Amino acid sequence: MKPVLRIPIYRRLLAAYALNELTFMVGSVALALLVYRRTGSALGATAFFLFAQFVPALISPMAVARLDQLRARTVLPALYGFEAVIYLALAWAASSHFSVVLVLILAFIDGTVALTGRTLVRAATVSVTAAAGLLREGNAVSNAAFSVCFMVGPGIGGTVVATSGTSVALLLDAVVFGVIAVNLLTTTGLPEAAAERKPARGRVRAALAYARGVPPIRVLLALQAVGVLFFTISVPVEVVFAQHSLHAGAAGYGALLSAWGAGAVAGAAVYARWRRRPSRDLITGGTACLAVGFGVMAAAPSLAVAIVGAALAGVGNGVESVSVRTALQEEVQEEWMALMMSLYEALFQSVPGAGMLIGGGITALGSPRAALAVAGAGSLVVMVAAWFSLAVLRGRAEPSADTARAGPRRDPPRTPARQHQ
To answer: For residues 381 and 287, what is the distance between their CA atoms, to the nearest angstrom?
Structure first.
């Protein structure tokens, strides 16, 4: 991992990416608690997640289509500076001027800006690391940073809210976003503006046509959409599973979530160790761990066994997600990178809603164990499909020295979809 960490631009982008994820998790916890406490309704909390995550997933690709051709050193600091302003407004609203409508509107704006910024940072990171022949190394480090932030962010958010209040948590987020903006504003060597800018109108449709027309990209996105659907069935189920199936109470539920988070961190380490393996092997292996983990949880006679299953599923999650993203990046032409990453991020924020509905429905009609069994069976189907369908991948685990010097691969036009460029 040391070679990629020696690249100054990458270190700055990594800091922006990690701090963005950490503050987003802290802010999400603080705002979800705020809305729920002020409304006293599960519908209020549901509305918050819809406005903060689901709706931005539908809007963000259009924002990326307008910004990805501009100079990164201008766009990225502006986005993070805007987020700092949004969190100042949220802190003001939380302190003495609470309004559900205002908070939901601000959460929607922040969710859109955050997703757009994350996408553009990832695209810039791909440009930097691929040019050095270190794409997989860069993704391994970024994935580890994300996993750690995902694990500790909610705890930090809950602790700050409990000890100092919601406004303080939101003000801290505003300060961190301001630091990110300054960090990127003083970073040199970020990707420049596109030499020939294409009209933003119609670029999302063209990106979808490009994805449909390139078999490896089409297969990866389709598999991930189905995979995320099954992987997220467990999200609303685990609390019922811990309390009513295992009779482990709130502590048992917390133990399951902690085991999953720890497994995800371990999965990031597994990917870092085996990153040179073919993407098909990594994706299939990660999905297999998820399938086994869900199966163990569904059949677990005790909390201890369920924790083992949750940890296995977390390892699979930590390997599978970064492996799919890396494989996608290795297949996509540079000029489409930001839009493909935007579609990928949108998929990750929109599909889980359907998975959660399925999980909740199966639990209500049957049992938490039945829902977990469906998640395991679905993951197993995805694993088999991945093994047979991902033979179309063309990405290389180790770029040659010539390729590294030449930068990201540019394939010659081969499909009708690329005529939309």
So the answer is: 9
Same fold, 1-192 and 199-395+413-421: yes
Domain 1-192, architecture per CATH: Up-down Bundle (1.20)
**What number of helices (H) and strands (E) belong to the chain?**
17, 0
d(CA 192, CA 69): 8
Which sequence spans correspond to the domains of the chain?
1-192, 199-395+413-421
Q: Report the alpha-carbon distance of residue 144 to residue 158 in Å, rounded.
A: 22
Burial class (CB in 10 A: 0-12, 13-18, 19+), 212: middle
- What would the pLDDT profile of 39-66 be if each residue is shown by its tens digit? 776 667 667 778 888 889 889 999 999 8
Residue closest to 162 by CA, chosen among 26, 275, 44? 26
The residues, any chain, with a CB within 8 Å of residue 400's CB and separated by 6 or more, are 133
Topology of the domain covering 199-395+413-421: Growth Hormone; Chain: A; (1.20.1250)
pLDDT at position 394: 66
Cβ neighbour number for residue 357 with a 10 Å cutoff: 13
Residue 179's nearest CA partner among 189, 168, 187 is: 187
CA 9 to chain centre: 22
User: Both tokens of residue 366?
Assistant: 């049957």
Q: Name residues whose C-beta falls within 8 Å of residue 82's C-beta, 6 or more positions apart in sequence.
A: 113
pTM: 0.79
Residue 135 CA to residue 137 CA, distance in Å, equals 6
